[in-house]
Write a structure and sequence with these properties.
The protein is 52% helix and 15% strand. The chain is of the alpha+beta class. The chain has a single domain, classed as Orthogonal Bundle (Multidrug-efflux Transporter Regulator, Chain: A, Domain 2). It has a 3-stranded antiparallel β-sheet. A hairpin with a 5-residue loop joins strand 2 and strand 3. The chain is globular, with a radius of gyration of 12 Å. Pfam families: HTH_17. This is Helix-turn-helix domain-containing protein.
Length: 61
């Protein structure tokens, strides 16, 4: 099984076409794809979490 790719915040906001502020607002309110916090406070998002978020959004639309 291949490891799940960890995306950076710039990767995620570019794919979602949102601002950095929107990403962090979603993070604070529990919306958006589930983040992974690495040592040192670095935030990443698993590719599978982003794909699941996008699928959930399209299903709700």
């Amino acid at each position: 099984m291949a490891r799940d790719e960890l995306l950076t915040v710039p990767d995620v906001i570019a794919e979602l076409h949102i601002s950095r502020a929107t990403f962090y607002r979603w993070l604070a309110t529990g919306k958006g794809p589930k983040p992974v916090r690495l040592p040192g406070g670095t935030i990443r998002v698993r590719r599978s979490a982003l794909d699941r978020f996008l699928n959930d959004c399209s299903a709700a639309a």
